[in-house]
Design brief:
This protein has ten helices and eleven strands. It is α+β, with helices and mostly antiparallel strands. It folds into two domains: 199 residues, no CATH class; 105 residues, Transcription Regulator spoIIAA (2-Layer Sandwich). The chain starts with a strand and ends with a helix.
Length: 309
Amino acid sequence: MSSSSNQLHVLGALALELRGEAPVARDALAQAEVGALAELVARDLARLAPDAAMLELVTVGAHYDSVEVLRPGWPLHHELDELAARAPKEVPLGGAPKDAYHDNAGRIIAFGAHEGQLPGALAPSPDFTGGPLRLVPFVLSGDADLAARVGDLFETQLLERGMAGADTALAAQAAFGLQVEHARYLTVHDLAAMMAMQYEHAGLAPLWPLLETALLQPDGEHWLDAAPEPLVHYAGGEARIALFSPHAWHARYASELHCDSDECREQLQRRHQHFEARQRQIAAVLGAHGVAVTFVHCVRDADYRNALS
């Protein structure tokens, strides 16, 4: 949950688990199409937590990769909230604004594409298409006490009982041209927990505590300082990765090797190449999650903390 003024926001997503390698036909719905899916989402959420019907639902007729949703400051959800705040509270007789569907009675605002363009910064990135899980983000906002009750309920129960209605899954499948295996609702914290497990299975478990700090405490600080992993310091919203001189890298990561043969030197070179590949992998993962990355040269092992601070 996040807060602004006297309101509290519950941040979540409709998670669409796709079947097989089916291509994505559409990543955004036109404004005229977005209302039907938004109403089904609102109905599902109210079934899971009746108080949700008393909150404003803001969503978008688009779907995103997990790395686009799991970013410091929750920028997709923030953009939805900002756009909703600027939308007129009452819909004139002429209809809804060109990029939004409004249902004032149910307090639903859903943004769709107008002439092929989504409003603001809502366009999904083409760099992250093709994944097996696609997310339709939503924000529930309103009275702080009410939103807190809904948020607490969702945090404890969505993982176990947050399946979307069958008609919601079919509507998303038809609208986006997807092959949906499962459709369920998750909070952003649920998504983070799922991502942590995925990264553990992918061999990236040492990086997760640093990334979790960036997501949940953007102003916090965390060190990844556990050889043989690259050295990374997160602080001030930025991840700084140490670039060691060959001598400093050898002293820190391969001090047991004192090479006097070609075989040993080749082994040392392979380890160094593996280390550099790991640095690039970590930088790419952090960058995908919207964490700024800076490489910092470290000449001596002894000065790395000063260099990265």
